[in-house]
Structure formats: structure tokens, C-alpha cells
Design brief:
mainly beta; 7-stranded mixed beta sheet; about 50% strand; globular
């Protein structure tokens, strides 16, 4: 069974930083396409980062480009999302999701494996 567990959320002032973690189960990060998503109540579920480690590709949404950076630790089977220069509009529940790399090359809301999420609150 594939499990994803996020951590690292919290309360931060605007302009501050947080680092989120997405820990996967026993499978290698190269086995998946992994996405970071965020959800604000009443707004659309937004894909902000899509990672395909086997191809060495990372795609960022315009809303976070230049401020958020993703990295991977294969030894820990963990993907990190470094969020800098946070803004109040970044307040959301953040979660990671994944699908087998043989099944997809894109990050979509329908990815079958999804963590429960971690809350990020940015105060202005």
C-alpha cells in the first residue's frame, strides 16, 4: 500500500518561510509522479508543483514560481517543499499526491495516492 504523510505546516508571518515534507512508503521516489497541491475552502484545488524524478523534471505553477522550491531525499523517501516569501494568499491546506510513473506523466486532482494534508497559515 502506498502511503503519503505530510508535515511541516504551521503559522508564519508574511515574508517568512516554511518547509513541508511528504514522506512516502517503501517505494522509491522514482516509481512515482508526485505533486504538491493546495486547497482553500471555496476555491479550486490547485496543483502547485509536479515532480517526475526519473525524468529530472519539475514544474511549478506561476503562483509559486520563484518562491517555492522542491527537493527530494531518496534515502528518506521524502520530497520537500521549501516555501519562501510567503504571502497571505498562500494560506491553504497543502497535500502531496502521487501516481505510478507508468500510469501518468502529469499531476492531476485524480492522483490515486494522497496524504491527509498539512495546514499553512500566513498572517499579514
Amino acid at each position: 500500500e502506498v502511503q503519503l504523510v505530510e508535515s511541516g505546516g504551521g503559522l508564519v508571518q508574511a515574508g517568512g518561510s516554511l518547509r513541508l515534507s511528504c514522506a512516502t512508503s517503501k517505494f522509491s521516489l522514482d516509481d512515482f509522479v508526485i505533486g504538491w497541491f493546495r486547497q482553500v475552502p471555496g476555491k479550486e484545488h490547485e496543483a502547485i508543483v509536479c515532480i517526475n524524478n526519473s525524468k529530472g523534471s519539475v514544474a511549478y505553477a506561476d503562483s509559486v514560481k520563484g518562491r517555492f522550491t522542491v527537493s527530494s531525499d531518496y534515502a528518506k523517501n521524502t520530497v520537500y517543499l521549501q516555501m519562501n516569501n510567503l504571502k497571505s494568499e498562500d494560506t491553504a491546506v497543502y497535500h502531496c499526491a502521487a501516481d505510478w510513473i507508468v500510469a501518468t506523466s502529469a499531476c492531476t486532482s485524480g492522483m490515486p495516492f494522497r496524504g491527509k494534508g498539512t495546514m499553512v497559515i500566513v498572517s499579514s
